[in-house]
Amino acid sequence: MMRSSEEMKESLLGKESKWSYLEPGSVRSSILTLCANSMGAGLLSIPYVFSKTGLIGGIVMLLLGAVIFAFYYRVLIKAHDQTQVYNYSGTVKKLLGEGGRRIIELCFIGFSFGVLCVYQVLAAGFILDVLQAGGFIQYIGLSYETARITLLLVVSLLVLTPLTIPEKMTALRYASSICLIALFYIIIVLIVQLPSYLVASEVEISYIKTDLSLINSFTICVFAFDGILGLSIIYGELSNKSYQKMTKVIDRAVGLSVLLYIVMGTAGYLALGTNTPNLITEREYLWGTDWYMIVAELLIGFTLIAAVPLKMTPLRNNVEQLVSGTESERNYVLYYGVTYVSLYASTFIAVVVPNAIKYFSFLGGFLIVPIAFVIPGILYFKLENSKAKLVSAGFLSVVLGLMGIYSTISTIIT
C-alpha cells in the first residue's frame, strides 16, 4: 500500500521535522528562547558568586536555584492554563483581582527601570575599557571617572535619545543574540585559559562558605537566572500548547542554563580564586593587555546600548497600563514623558552608582524575588488543594521573600 508524502516525511524526519526545529512555537525554539531570555549580563557575575560561596557552595546554590525556578515556572504555567490568559499581569488580575495586577505592574516598571540603569553602567564600563586598552583615554588626558561620566551623558543625549523614540525596534531585535555570542565566547576563553592560569599562579580556593553573604550571592544568582518575564509569552506562542509540553521546555532550558552557569563560575573561580572581580571581564590578566576580554566587552557594550531602547518599550507599556488601564488608546504626552524621564533618570543613577553588582543584588532581591517567587507562591494557593503542598510552597515563598528583603536592605546600607 502506497503511503502519502506526509506519512513518508513523518517516518523519515519524525513528527517534528529537523528542517523546522527552530520554527517559532516549536519545543526546541521555545527552549532556546527561554535560555536566551534567562541569560544576560548577569552571567558575568557568577564567578564572583563562587568566590563568596566557595566552589561547592556555588554549584549547590545554582542547582538549588534551578530547582526553585523550575517549580515556580510550573506554577505560572498552571495559572495560565486555568485562566486561559497567556500574559503575566492578565493572569494575576484574573486570580488576584485588579489590586494584584497593579502590584505586578509596579514590579515590572521597577525592574525595567533598574535594567535601564545597569545596562548603561555596564556599557559605559565596557566601552571605556576598550578605549583605555587602545590608549585613547590616556591620549585625551581625562581621568577614568571623568571619562565614564562624559561617556554616559554623551551616549544618553546623542545616541539613546533618538533611539528610544520609535515604538517598534525591529532593527535592534538581534542585540540579545550578539550578547549571547559574546557570553559563550567568554566561557570558551575561560575554559581554554584555565590550565595556563593554574600553572602560572597559585590561588586560594574555598570549597564552601557559611555567612550572611550567601544571601546576597543568592539574589545575584536570581538576577542572572530569571526568565519569568518572558515565560508567559513563550508559552502563549508554543504550538499545541499543554502543561506537559511546556514542562519539557522548562526543564531543558533551566538545565542548559545552569550547566553554562556552573561552567562559567567554576572556570572563572578556579583561575582567580579570592581575586575574582565583581565581573569576570575585569579579571587580572597575567600576560599583558587582556585582548580576549576586550573583544567581549566591545561586543557586549554596544549590544547593551542597543538593548536600552528595547527595554524602554515594556517600561512604557507597563506605565501606560498602570495609569490608563489595559484598554485605553495611546496617550502620546504620557508616552514621551515616560520615555525621557525614565531615560535621563536612569542615566543620572548610572552616573551616581557605578557598581554593577549592587544593581544585580538589589534587583534580584527587591523585584525579581516578588515577581518570580512571592506572587507565583500566592497564585499557588488558588491552584492547589493539598494542604501539605500549600504549607511547603508557602514556607518556601516566605523564606525567599525574607531573603529578598535582607539582600535589598544590606545592598542599600553598604
Provide an overview of this structure.
The chain is mostly helical. It contains 15 helices and no strands.
Structural class: mainly alpha
* Cα-atom radius of gyration: 22 Å
Instruction: Provide the helix percentage.
Output: over 70%
User: What pattern of helices and strands is seen along the backbone?
Assistant: HHHHHHHHHHHHHHH
Q: Estimate what percentage of residues fall within beta strands.
A: under 5%
Overall geometry comes to globular
State the major sheet. Answer: none
Number of helical segments with 4 or more residues:
15
Low-confidence stretches: 1-20
Tell me which oligomeric state these chains represent: single chain
Ends distance? 76 Å
What is the arithmetic mean of pLDDT?
87
What's the total count of β strands? Answer: 0
Q: What's the short story on this structure?
A:
Helix content is 77%, strand content 0%.
Topology:
Layout: H1 5-13, H2 27-38, H3 46-53, H4 55-83, H5 88-133, H6 136-140, H7 144-163, H8 175-200, H9 213-225, H10 228-237, H11 243-272, H12 291-324, H13 332-352, H14 356-383, H15 387-413
Task: Provide keyphrases for this structure.
globular; mainly alpha; 77% helix
